[in-house]
Amino acid sequence: MRSSTILQTGLVAALPFAVQAASGSGRSTRYWDCCKPSCAWSGKASVSKPVLACDANNNPLSDPNVKSGCDGGSAYTCANNSPWAVNDQLAYGFAATKLSGGTESSWCCACYALTFTSGPVTGKTLVVQSTSTGGDLGSNHFDLNMPGGGVGLFDGCKREFGGLPGAQYGGISSRSECDSFPAALKPGCQWRFDWFKNADNPEFTFKQVQCPSELTSRTGCKRNDDSQFPAFSR
Question: What's the number of CA atoms in the CB half-sphere (13 Å) around residue 79?
Answer without folding.
Answer: 16
